Predict the structure.
Amino acid sequence: MKELVVISGKGGTGKTSLTASFAALARKAVLADCDVDAADLHLILQPEVRRRESFVSGREAVIREADCAGCGRCAALCRFEAISAVARDSDGARVFRIDSAACEGCGVCTWNCPAKAIDFPERTCGEWFVSATRHGPMVHARLAPGAENSGKLVALVREQARETARQSKRDLVLVDGPPGTGCPVIAAVTNANAILVVTEPTVSGFHDLSRVLQLAAHFRIPAAVCVNKWDIHPDMADRIEDQARSAGAVPVGRVRYGPEATDAQRRKLAVVEAGNSPLADDIRVVWQNWLDSTAESGEKESR
Ligand code: SF4
Ligand code: SF4
């Protein structure tokens, strides 16, 4: 089974739009939307949810007010300033409450409460889904507002996508990864067979690409690069491809700027589904070149 991951140095480069087209072009793929902080592949692929699960990660402290003696020890010890006195009860004792958004789940207050009045339940941080789409099964997720641990959720989505592929006898997992170079991206690319970095021909695209390619080199993952909207700055597109080559990555093609991308999104279609266009042809070439480059790197590895 192959796991191919599409990432970008920052959001808004057209990564998800390209991934949706790759999903349409792939045969027997399972799709994984690992951009869990800003998932939007579902807007194009319109998944029908078949399985829904809670994403539980870490714990949060909750005071049982009936058992609290109002001593204030927990508030004094909490280094995240998550606990404060919010009122006084009828006996004049202070009533303490925990701001769940500020609680980091360290557990210090629960261990040190003399009245043992603080519960420490597991925290539900979001949901994940296994769905059906017109291009195959898709695993995706929704992180709760303000929730952290997106790296763990990314790892979970990938694992479930691989499991879905095993069960449905599909030999490809196509991942829409998160942007940037932080923890969620590392969770999305670790042990993947190959990554494709989608970038734009801008100064920030140039610099972001260098950081992403360093990450790929660190984890020894074969990297390919696609310059999206290359024709808005052809000289910069040249520089980006030169930079990719010198970092050991393979430029697998350029995608031009065109209104077909927005038009397809408005119709909830991938560009390659929305009719023939030069833009769709560019995407087909990038997909085929990327597949060919992953086959070559696989052959080198097996030698
Ligand atoms: S340490 Fe325990 S008893 Fe004291 S204020 Fe906090 S919850 Fe209440
Ligand atoms: S678990 Fe830690 S962060 Fe949360 S309220 Fe208690 S001391 Fe503060």
About this structure: The CA atoms of residues 230 and 256 lie 6 Å apart. The first strand starts at residue 2 and ends at 8.
